[in-house]
Structure formats: C-alpha cells, structure tokens
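Below is how a single chain appears once it has passed through the pipeline. First comes the sequence as given, then the structure the pipeline wrote out for it. We keep one example in the README because the format questions we get most often are answered faster by looking than by reading.
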Amino acid sequence: MRRLLGVTVMIATATSLAATPTDAEVKALLEERLSLPRGGVGLVVGIVDASGKRVIVAGVPAVGSKEPLSGQTVFEIGSVTKVFTSLALASMVEKKEVALTDPVAKFLPKGTKVPTRDGKDITLQDLATQTSGLPRLPSNLAPKDRANPYADYTAQRLYDFLAEAQLPRAIGAQYEYSNLGVGLLGHALSREAGVDFDHLIHARITGPLKLSNTAVALTPAMKQHLAPGHDGELKATANWDFDALAGCGALRSTADDLLTFLSAELGYAKTPLAGAMAAQLVPRRPTDLPNTEIALGWHVTTTKTSQHVWHNGGTGGYQSYVGFDPKTKVGVVVLSNAATLLRIDDLGQHLLDPSIPVSKPSVHTEITLTPAQLEAFTGRYAITPQFVLTVTHEGDGLFVQATGQGKMPVFAESPRGFFARLVDAQVTFDQDVDGKASGLTLHQGGRDTPARRIGDAPAPVVRQTIAVDVKVLETYVGRYVVSPAFALTITRDGERLFLQATNQPKLELFAEQPNRFFVKEVEASITFTEQGLVLHQNGNDVPAKRER
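Resulting structure:
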C-alpha cells in the first residue's frame, strides 16, 4: 500500500500575474503546513512567471538546525527524474538516434529476452507513457537494505526479471504507473549513448541548460548544500542510491535549477532543447486519472480553461512536485525533505491556481469491531492480476499485505471502513447480503481504486511464544549493523526484549525459540547467531554484525 500518483485538475483563468500568490502568502502557507503534526521539516517553493523567478522557504534542513534553506538547497527529486529521462528520449528522437517505435530490446545485450504480447514488442514510447504492461516494480527487487531499495538492483537482475515476465494485457492498452518501465527506458537510452545515466542526462539536458546542481552523483558543492532526508516520523533517514533503474528516480536537484528548467519549458529562455521539449509535451495516451493524458513523461491535465503539465516524486526522505500551465505561463516547484503522510502536491496545485484549496490532514477515530465482523473482511482482493491485497484477521486486529510488500495493520473507523497509520491510506469493504466482503476500495493519493475478492486468505501462521531466561536475553542486547546507514538496536526491559531499526519505532520481540524472535506489528523475525543476527523479512535473510 504505497502511495499512488496524486491527481491534479487545474482550472486557470486568463493570464494574470495578480492571481499568483505573493511571497508573504506563500510563506504563511508553508509555515502553516510545517506547524501541523508531522507536517515536514523544510519546504522550498519556486515560482516562475512573466515577472521572473522567486524562491520562498520555510523550516530548516534538519531538525534542530539553524542553517537557512535557499534555492540552492539540494533535494532528492524522486520520480520527477522521469521527466528528464523522457526528455532525453525526445532529444535522441529529434537527432534520429532512436525512434519512439523502436523496441526496447534493440538496445539491450544480444539475447536478452523482453516480454511481448500478441506479437507486439514493448517500444520506447510505451515505456515513456507508462503503458508497457510492465508492473510498478520488478518481483525480484528484494533489496538487502530496505532503507535504500534500488541500490543493489543491477542490470543482470533486470534482465533476469524481463526473461520471466508475462504481460497481463496488450501493450499500449492501459496506463499503469511503472518505476520499472521508466527505469528500463533510462537503462536502454544510456546503453545506446554509451554512457551511464548520470552522464546521459548531463550531456542531453543539464549541460545545455546549465543546471549545475542537478545530477545523480553529488558534486562537492551539492554535498555542501544537501538537505538531509527525513521519514514520516521526521527522523533523519539515508539517501537513496540507484543502479540499473536510475531513470525512474535517481536525480537530485535544487529549486533554482528546476526553475531554470521550467523557464525553458515555458519559453522564457531560449534553449537548444526547445524542439525536444515541444515534442515531449504532446499528449499520447489516456490515463485513469480525471481529464488527464500522458505525454512523454509529463502528465497533462486539460479542462475547458487550462492545460496543466505536472509530475511529482518521492523517496524515503523527500517529496517533490513540478508543474506549469502553458496558458498562464506560470511554473511552480515544491521541494520537501520529509516523506510525510501530508503530501505536497496540493501546495503546488494551489500555487498554480489559488482557487484550488490546500488539503487538511485527515482525522481518524478508531472503533472496536467484533471478531466475527473482522473475519468477514478476510480474503484476497485483486487490483490487477499482478497486484493483490491480502486481508487477514490475526488476534484482535485486521492486516493488509500488498503483493511484494510487508504486512500492515489497519484500524476500523466505521463498520466497513479502515485506515492505516503507517501510510495515508484507507480501505472500504463492499459486503454481500450475508455480510461477507465481496470487494474493497483502496483510497490513497486522491484515488479510489476498486479491487474484487478473488479468494480466501491463507490461514495466518500461529506462533507459539516461549519464556527465555533474562540472563540469555541480556546476551542479545546491543547494536547490530546491516549497513553503514541502517542498524538494529536490541534493548531489554525486565523480561521483555525490544528491537528498533534506524529511524523506526521500537517494537517488542517475542521468543519462539531461545535464539529466534518475532514481532507482531509486521511480518518479520530475527535469529541471533554467534556473529550477530539475521533479519528474516519478505523472503529475505539479511545478516547484521554486532558492534563490539
């Protein structure tokens, strides 16, 4: 149940600079957002219009810091990278180096198997328009470090996945957002250009536009101005690294650079990329978002009075939003160094069109349902054939587990409605006349996604707990290092043992063997060894060495 793309529907009036909020109004808006519980750590907004560029900031780079934010502060921009990847494609098409209709297999090593459907190949355009039929993520992602999920996903693992993948629908038939697909696009274009992704983007985009602080690898100057990322609890978290899938989200940038980028898009600055930018903006496929088509990378939302072009992004510690209106010639950048449940898309929308209100945080009140009521909701619910939500009733709670993700508790707020506390998502169940659930709707990121019930949930694993002598428990107390940025800390309180991962809440451990313990909140367990411990989660066995 990860966040989905937000919906942006803009209604713009005739070109009017008076409609653009003043710096004071923007500052007040940002400070109000940061004043909310877990509203963020720092926010940087950039606005460009006919009068020029301006940057407004609020908050700090890190909790407790007194350093100021600015237009040169560096953030991870996540999926906004997809716009750059697709612009590189448009540039290479303009130079006749590739064609939109080229099969992606053409640019992979000889013998690499890429899935086809009905005799049709996946093309570069299919990847750039999120209509390839490939899933959001590869099933073999399985990161060694969940705090840095793309770092060890190599080209060979990508090829291994493609060799076994099967497409659920005709290529080009349906929009389905895919980090995998655009990551594959960036990989293919880099191979064709004979450089890595970072150098591809520099040669095609950031170099010509003089975006000196937009790159994958941090320069010394970028490191000096990097705002640390923060998780949903506003705790510092590690930066993300990318290998084969860099094209989907690897770039770091600043408000100043992104405003320069938008200035070129809006025609305020002359650029050799003007032709490629124009070609990139042509809407090419429909989406399942209201009034929205997808161009090459960009989403284009059209109403009777406006055409709003946008993309958003998020990593483990950052959020980004970039959008512009070609009619009003206003562009907006919003950057946050916290991956909170309060998204920033609404801020960008409001700054482009003040008639669109900013969101208010949802308030959920938990109620108690009987075991029989909870049991009626168990089952497997298919959003797509490859993406299923499994709902189980364990103890006195209900849990939801999405394909390839960990198990998450949900809490009743009505007889059929539940909410999650770990992500901003809710679920509403449909019930037959006999009370048994027949389907559900996932509410997340401004979208209501239905899923039909396809079968029973597997019986939950019943784990028997045992008592372990406190002297043995004490031998497990310590800090266990998974990676330089991620560790597990074990503490004891009387006869109880606790686990706390870096930047995550403390969880109680329950013994099922003298050296093997499990947690109840998520589907994970650990085994203590002579060298340290092994974390068992999502089918992975991750070793951690004990610090001495």
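DSSP finds twelve helices and 28 strands in the chain.

See the next section for the split statistics.
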